[in-house]
Amino acid sequence: MRNKKMIGAHSALALLALAVSQVHAADATQQAAREARADKAAEKTLAKMSQEEKLAYIGGTGGWDVKPLASQGIPQIHGADGGVGVRYTSEGNEQGVVYPSGPNLAATWNPRRAIDLGRALGYDTATGGYQFITGPGVNLYRMPYSGRAFEYLSGEDPFLGASLVPAVVNGIQSRGVWANTKHYAANDQESNRFNLNETIDERVLREMTLPAFESASKNGKTVMMMCAFQKVNGDFACESTHLIRDILKKEWGYKGFVQSDYNAVVHGLDAAQAGTDLDMMGYQMNSTVLKPHLDSGELSAATIDDKVRRILKNIYLYKFDSKAPLTTHNMNSATSNKVALNTARESIVLLKNQDNLLPLDKTKVKSIAVVGDLAKYAPPTGFGSANVMASHYISELSGLKQIAPNAKVEFIDGLSLDPTASVWTSTNTAGNDVKGLKAEYFSNANWSGDAAATRTDTRVNLDWSSDANLPINGDTSATSIRWSGKVTPTVSGEQVFKVRADGAVRLYVNGEKIIDNGDGEHLPSNSIPPTIPVFAKLKLEAGKAYDIKLEYSRRNGYISTMGGLVGVQMSWASLVAPQDLSKYDAVVVAVGNSNEYEGEGFDHSFDLPEFQNDLINNIAKVNPHTVVTMHGGTGLKMSDWIDQVPAALHAFYPGQNGGQALAEILFGKVNPSAKLPISIERNIEDNPIYSTFKNFDNEEQLKEMSYKNDLMLGYRGYEKKGIKPLYPFGYGMSYTTFGYSNISVTPGVAVAGAPIKVSFDLSNTGKVGGSEVAELYVGQQNPKVERAIKELKGYKKVFLKPGESKRVTIELNDRSLAYFDTQSKQWVVDADTFNIALGSSSQDIRLNAKLVNPFRQELSTTTSNPLPRSALNSTLVTLPPVTTGGVMHQNENDDSDTSDGDGYGSDVDTGTTTDKSSATGN
Ligand code: BGC
What we know:
Radius of gyration: 28 Å
Strand order of the largest sheet: 9-26-25-24-10-11
CATH architecture of the largest domain: 3-Layer(aba) Sandwich
CATH superfamily of the largest domain: Glycoside hydrolase family 3 C-terminal domain
Shape: globular
CATH topology of the largest domain: Rossmann fold
Bound molecules: beta-D-glucopyranose
């Protein structure tokens, strides 16, 4: 009877699989028909366009839009910025949901979350009245300096990127809007981003830099690809024939169009010939620059036609010619919020949990101290074009208060650098002691003559773009202010002072200058200059009053948007924990970066800002139950404090509902299941590419960057060199434990073109439900060329109840074994034995097996795929596409989560259900 049932269940599954594959086949036929119609329509329109019209059309509006083509009835196509949420670009300040950052998504190791995130992002884009979004960002993580790592979802591994990117792109595009995968290629750091020349050899390019883009093209069919600012092997990325024309378009058969990053086209002719289709700023690819080359025959009319055809075809394919953008503006929908929350729940990595301090026990933990401004407001995110300000959020402080309503959850103001909380005193003009500082406002740049106005400012927290009651108008070339007064510490020891300003600042304590940022100017070439704080520490005595003087002189050109600041802020706080911190049952310390220290246009330090390492150590001395939650798009220095604290998590930038997700993890309502998509260095010098990238550069002096060590990026290099990072790639703890057994590889001898199945039993050997990411690494035994000892080539996230076991299969394909052969310019699999290593992290391998490839195989760059079949299937959106011109209703904003009983939101502490093979078409 039981067997019959099993057989029944199996055949039902087989029927389902058949039905799914039939749906896919039918989808593919319909899609081919739609494409053929779009091609035809584009051809017809193209035939009616004059050369002048075509040349005008391949330049964008200079904003975010594709120009209208009124004569052909084609409207303007509206784009929105943002990879981690929709940043409104042309319609006021309304913003979309802030999703967890790129590294958060990578840390989920779950294409299912990537599809949902893509669908939600696509929904927000469409409902906002936009037809494309400039994301996802997919570049590789090389060093912790990277300013835009928070936007990128590849981590340090090309396979991880290649497996997630098409899921996001498919999700976005299933909403009837275009994805714009960026930045093609190798915009992996911000140092001198407009001029840096990267030397990248062909193997590094093919094996490390490009697979995420290859997958976006081949598997995601991303309509847009944004070419990058910097140079690759001597050519600006948007002018690289090798990257765009030869690899992207010819080899990969890319059917979309390439848009330049904003102002990334330096030479119009080169970009046009290299294959850039749309110069968004239009400064170079226009009639003035290109027509003479057309006339001389240097540039062919066919080259221009190809660009126009690509853009038009996708307009027709998505019916943008006839379907007006939506006006619903439902930018903060419940479903999008749920997607942000679910992603966050799976994306916060538990790094350390000594003596099972976590999860906190609600019945025992009656008081929690929360330290750090990052916990107080909207969960942080980075600066720049991907910066989205949450209009609605759950801070980490609020998340903790809500999850533990009977506990006393208190924010510790004395350790806060919030400018609204810092306490100053001074004597006012009437001679009375008052709270606040004496403020002298000058209508000149250097505090000269009589002040235009003098008053008491309770705090230094001035914003020229929004403050209503300022005594002077803040003219950028003729404004200076002097604040003076006193501070009186309540704890003896080191105190930190912090100033953030759009100009020159000098801070004096008792006459000693402790902060001086020079002339306060930013690089003239930086069109979106960040406002990075300056900080300093010094020892002060409790109860003693110290003189304070801050001089500020305003400078031109800073911005108030994208996480920037036009204004000035000053704060101070103790780095020493007050004794009464010892009486709390736990202390949660939020540290790391934010839009102030990390973002587009600049790289940043490996160190935690504001001497937070000292703060952590000082708190841990007072309270042994200190939990550190780290934030930022990168790894940061942890080795100087991690041994002092019992528990630590890397939350990256967990999005607007990150406070809830974090609280749920800390209290065990959600069992953490995230794994690091990066290695975290013990010391920066340990990073395998350190010798080629010792220091970042925000002054545009660094002209050359060698990628010569990049085949051994991240865990590849650590393993090769025998150095242990502090936390390895793929590492992340759970509240349960998992057992691996019974590995089999079928076939054990590879047959060209046939998938290789690696199967094993995975068991939950602990007491609570949880999800494990099983990671599959492959290494060649006797490589003829330099190869990493092992490389990630598959993974699967599986939810298991306590005591439950499942047989899990991960597929490999021929590319999983291949390297790029620079002679034949193809992928090659040597005749050799390959080691299959399966484990819980790159350094925690539980099962080993072998696979033999008996004959050398050569794989075409066109038809080979970085994703094995099952990984590819798990990026597919099985919900109906809305690309056919249907009107999107709110109830279409379903994430794929709703139908599958994920267990999220219920009060069971099972964590997540993530093995959705049937639902994702596996
Ligand atoms: C960034 C792009 C962004 C664009 C538009 C550029 O500076 O590199 O990623 O989409 O600005 O804001």
